[in-house]
């Protein structure tokens, strides 16, 4: 392969948000690229980009993200920089990515997926089932709120945002007795052993579509980035996300919607589980399909149609 590799004088510019998790993901991407091509860290430049979603003044701490309109809230400025050439690749949590990318950009490189499960975090309780009736729990996620209320209608769910440290402080001062975060983020930040938590099985809380997966976006017409990313791409993650994201797309969903989905591979067989909920958890529909891994997107669309049929017309009408 004739490829001009980046050098310290002409580094590959890696765009990312500045949060601790985003930076950990950007460093992992750089380290995998450096290892794959035998390059020094100096051949890469990590460029931190502030997004609307990071601008605290835009977001009152108690205002649910959905009210601000979160389609592209954390990605718009990064994608603009990518199109303008200010960066060469952009590292994202796939869970936060819309199902379609802007013209001129492609998102077809995934790193090996981390733990897909949600973590139950609480200094005083062993798990969801052990919480006494009426317990206050905190989350900012519409999906988790709906799932929690669906399984435990007796709980009170309060809006809970901010970084891990802020949340732990709120647990300590009694604002809530428990909160929930992705295992993947905790692991990638090296926090898994340092926080009182247990991983929840997907049967107890089915994770968000693409949870635990990192995707790397590039310009369509950039062969260097294309060829470099091909070397660190994980095809198993791609197979699983094809099914999950087709499921999400067919539901016309985004991270504003209480939707959960998880595909798992067993050899050449793909098992897809999905769930859709009303925001207050009073209605929840779930199902699963298994089929050949090569037909993941068909499986995703089929499961979405099955669940929409179960739920009946107008199930998502509250979104409009
Ligand atoms: N929406 C925020 C977000 N986006 C990705 C992660 C965690 C990492 C991942 O799921 O890949 C999180 C925080 C969380 O849910 O705990």
From TrEMBL:
The alphabetical list of record keywords is: Porphyrin biosynthesis, Transferase
* Pathway(s) annotated for this protein in UniProt: Porphyrin-containing compound metabolism; protoporphyrin-IX biosynthesis; coproporphyrinogen-III from 5-aminolevulinate: step 2/4
In this protein, which residues make up the domain named Porphobilinogen deaminase N-terminal?
Answer: 12-225
User: What are the EC numbers?
Assistant: 2.5.1.61
Enzyme superclass (EC): transferase
- Mind telling me which InterPro entries this protein's record contains? HemC, Porphobilin_deaminase_cofac_BS, Porphobilin_deaminase_N, Porphobilinogen_deaminase_C, Porphobilinogen_deaminase_C_sf
Instruction: Please report the stretch or stretches of sequence annotated as the Porphobilinogen deaminase C-terminal domain.
Output: 240-308
Cofactor info, note text: Binds 1 dipyrromethane group covalently.
The biological processes this protein is annotated with in GO are: protoporphyrinogen IX biosynthetic process
Output the superkingdom of the source species: Bacteria
> Which cofactor names does the annotation list?
dipyrromethane
Q: Per its record, what are the GO molecular function terms?
A: hydroxymethylbilane synthase activity
| GO CC field | cytoplasm
Could you tell me which residues carry S-(dipyrrolylmethanemethyl)cysteine? 255
Question: Which reactions is this enzyme annotated as catalysing?
Answer: 4 porphobilinogen + H2O = hydroxymethylbilane + 4 NH4(+)
Q: Which family does it belong to?
A: Belongs to the HMBS family.
The entry's function note states: Tetrapolymerization of the monopyrrole PBG into the hydroxymethylbilane pre-uroporphyrinogen in several discrete steps.
What more does the entry say?
The porphobilinogen subunits are added to the dipyrromethane group.
UniProt-recorded name of the protein: Porphobilinogen deaminase
Annotated source species: Salipiger abyssi
């Amino acid at each position: 392969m004739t490829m001009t590799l980046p050098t310290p004088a002409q580094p590959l510019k890696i765009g990312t948000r500045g949060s601790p998790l985003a930076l950990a993901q950007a460093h992992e991407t750089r380290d995998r690229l450096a290892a794959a091509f035998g390059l020094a860290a100096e051949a890469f430049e990590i460029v931190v980009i502030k997004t609307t979603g990071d601008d605290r003044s835009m977001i009152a701490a108690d205002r649910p993200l959905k009210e601000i309109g979160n389609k592209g809230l954390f990605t718009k400025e990064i994608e603009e920089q990518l199109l303008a050439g200010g960066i060469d690749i952009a590292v994202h949590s796939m869970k936060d990515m819309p199902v379609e990318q802007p013209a001129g950009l492609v998102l077809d490189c995934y790193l090996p997926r981390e733990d897909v499960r949600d973590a139950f975090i609480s200094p005083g309780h062993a798990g969801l089932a052990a919480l006494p009736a009426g317990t206050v729990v905190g989350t900012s996620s519409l999906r988790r709120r709906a799932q929690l209320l669906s399984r435990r209608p007796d709980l009170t769910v309060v809006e809970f945002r901010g970084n891990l440290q802020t949340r732990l402080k709120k647990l300590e001062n009694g604002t809530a007795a428990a909160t929930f975060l992705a295992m993947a983020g905790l692991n990638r930040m090296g926090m898994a052993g340092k926080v009182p938590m247990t991983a929840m099985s997907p049967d107890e809380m089915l994770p968000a579509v693409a949870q635990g997966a990192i995707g790397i976006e590039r310009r369509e017409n950039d062969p260097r980035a294309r060829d470099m990313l091909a070397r660190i791409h994980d095809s198993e993650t791609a197979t699983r996300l094809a099914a999950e994201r087709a499921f999400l797309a067919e539901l016309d969903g985004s991270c504003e919607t209480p939707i959960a989905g998880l595909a798992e591979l067993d050899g050449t067989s793909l098992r897809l589980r999905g769930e859709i909920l009303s925001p207050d958890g009073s209605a929840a529909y779930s199902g699963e399909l298994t089929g050949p891994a090569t037909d993941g997107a068909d499986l995703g669309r089929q499961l979405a149609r099955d669940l929409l049929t179960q739920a009946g017309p107008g199930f998502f009408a509250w979104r409009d």
